[in-house]
Structure formats: C-alpha cells, structure tokens
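Supplementary Methods. Inverse-folding protocol.

Structures were first reduced to a discrete structure-token string of length 365. This string, shown here, constituted the complete conditioning input.
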C-alpha cells in the first residue's frame, strides 16, 4: 500500500469525521476537497519567512491568508471581495482557515498585500512543485501530455517594442565566392542548450492579444495570456507556464519538458500537431522519452498518420485538455481579476495546485 494511499485514507476516514465533530457542521464536498489539498500540500512548511519576526509593527499572520486563497480556488470565488463575504458568513470555512471570529479576518487591502508577496516569491509555484515531487517523484509516469489554453484578462495589452531594423537580404542565389551571413537561430533551436531558468526568463509574459483554433477549427480571439500545462496520467498537472497570448504553443514545449523532467520520471511525450517540430522531438529523445506528436500537414500534402500503437497512446493526451477545462470551469482559470504576469501566474497556480491535489485523490478513491 503506497504512502499516498495511506495518507488519503487517513484524511477521509479519520480527519474528516474529527473536523466535523470539532466544527459541529458537515464539511461538504468542497470542504473535504479543501482539507485534502491542505493536508497534501502542507503549506505551513513554506510560510515561515512571511511571518512577523518581532521587528517593526506586527502584521497579520500570513498562513491563514494563504489558506483563504487556496479556498478561493477550491470554491471558485471570482473575487477577493466574494471570498471575504463568504468568510464573514461561513464559520466553518473561517475556522478551517484559522480565524475563530469574523472580526479576526483581515481587510481586503491586507489580502491584496499578502497576495502580492506570494506572487513575487512565486509561492504557489513552490507549493505545486513540492506536491508533485513528494507524491510522484519516486513513481514512473507513463505519459506526459501537453496543451495550451487561452487566459482572458482585464487589463490593457502592453505596447510591443519596435523590432530592430534588419539589413535587407539579397535575393536569389549567391554568386561564386560570395559569402552570406547565416540566419539567426530560432528560439526552438536555442532552447535545447539552455537551462529551464534561462528559457523561462526569455519567454514573453505580458498581456497582449492572441488567436487560437478551437476543437471545431474556428479561430478564437482574446486579450490576456496563454496557459501552458503538462500533465501526467490521470490528469495530474506536473508543470505550468504562463506566457503572452500571442506566443505560439510550441515555444513553451521544451521548457515544460525540462520542468517535468526535474519532477517526475516518464516514458512518452504526447502533443498535438502544433508541437510538430524537430527540435521538440529531438529534445524529447535526449531525455530518453518517446515523442508521440501528431504530424502536421504540409503545403500540398495531407498530414501523415501515426502508427496504430502510437495512435492508441495519443488518445491519452486528452487528460491535458480535461485538466485545462477543470482549471477554467471550476478553479479560477476563467475569473482572472489581478493584473500583471506575476500575479496572474500566482492566481492560476493556486487553481493548478487544487486540480493536482484533486486528481491525486481521485486516482486512489
């Protein structure tokens, strides 16, 4: 029996009844999910340096505020104001977060300052990484599935810098003895030789406009960002990257593979035709994986078909699509009210954290 199975069994059979007795109220489905997320993640391990250290004016305890933001993702509250209203009128949720009385709940301004601290330090990303390493780090993952989704935001698109003027290239074939400069290497060609930190730092992450074909082949337009998710079997998110809406899906494939490789051991990389590029397939092979990427149609020729065995494996890629849908429908992905890449990423990562914990629990129920 795995340690994870024992932990989840203990939570469901021992902790839930004890909490319901202590709170004198049923937890409900959302309450049980919230308790499961907190017990699996153990966020108190990461908040010590946010707390007051006895110097200067005392400030509000940050751990209950972090728990409240996790509750916001669990219950899919659209705004912090809605979260505070629920805390004021729901004693069960308030006590689960760590406040006995409604008057103890901090103001909306304090919540905003605390969230800015969490976002700047990338605390939600740290919580998610620790969860995946703790629960899946010693497991063998069969398939890693990659998908991107539109993230609408309520902010003005950033002004794009004007590209530097390029020297006009000569047309036609070079004359005998003429040497022409080699074209600059593309981002995909450079990413394989960089570290994960270097690749992430180079990706654009400001608000702009994007376009993406949906499942029906119709172009979808939005203003905001794009979320890139890589999931393990069972739809467990093991990595997430936020980028500008205009960035092509393929530009984040190698960073996602690097991120996942540092957390889990896997065998197959499943991606749709947007990721069909030799640098991506080559990097997957360098990691010792088998790339299963849907071929792309070329000009004047239809797309090649995957071999039957690979086509069967490719069906597993839908787990990434379902995880993205769960994030947007149920855990904050469609209610982005903060501004700026750091805060938007933190808001979404709390939702990704909930999706990951819920998927881990679902696998063992």
């Amino acid at each position: 029996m795995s340690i994870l199975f024992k932990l989840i069994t203990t939570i469901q059979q021992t902790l839930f009844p004890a909490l319901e007795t202590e709170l004198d109220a049923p937890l409900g489905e959302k309450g049980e999910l919230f308790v499961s997320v907190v017990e699996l993640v153990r966020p108190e391990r990461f908040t010590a340096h946010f707390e007051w250290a006895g110097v200067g004016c005392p400030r509000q305890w940050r751990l209950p505020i972090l728990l409240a933001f996790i509750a916001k993702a669990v219950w899919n509250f659209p705004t912090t104001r809605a979260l505070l209203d629920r805390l004021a009128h729901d004693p069960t949720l308030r006590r689960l977060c760590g406040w006995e009385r409604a008057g103890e709940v901090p103001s909306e301004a304090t919540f905003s300052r605390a969230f800015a601290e969490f976002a700047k330090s990338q605390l939600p990303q740290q919580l998610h990484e620790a969860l995946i390493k703790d629960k899946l780090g010693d497991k063998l993952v069969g398939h890693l599935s990659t998908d991107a989704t539109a993230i609408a935001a309520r902010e003005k698109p950033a002004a794009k810098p004007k590209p530097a003027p390029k020297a006009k290239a000569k047309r036609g074939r070079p004359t005998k003895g003429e040497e022409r400069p080699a074209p600059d290497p593309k981002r995909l060609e450079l990413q394989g030789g960089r570290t994960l930190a270097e690749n992430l730092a180079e990706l654009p992450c400001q608000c702009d406009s994007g376009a993406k074909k949906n499942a029906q082949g119709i172009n979808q337009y939005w203003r905001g960002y794009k979320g890139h998710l890589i999931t393990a079997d069972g739809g467990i998110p093991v990595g997430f990257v936020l980028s500008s809406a205009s960035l092509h899906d393929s530009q984040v494939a190698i960073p996602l593979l690097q991120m996942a490789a540092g957390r889990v051991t896997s065998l197959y990389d499943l991606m749709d035709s947007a990721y069909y590029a030799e640098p991506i397939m080559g990097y997957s092979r360098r990691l010792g994986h088998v790339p299963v990427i849907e071929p792309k149609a070329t000009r004047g020729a239809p797309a090649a078909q995957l071999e039957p065995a690979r086509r069967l494996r490719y069906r597993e890629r839908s787990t990434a699509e379902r995880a993205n849908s769960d994030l947007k429908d149920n855990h904050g992905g469609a209610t982005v009210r903060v501004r700026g890449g750091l805060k938007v990423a933190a808001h979404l990562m709390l939702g990704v954290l909930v999706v990951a914990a819920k998927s881990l629990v679902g696998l063992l129920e």
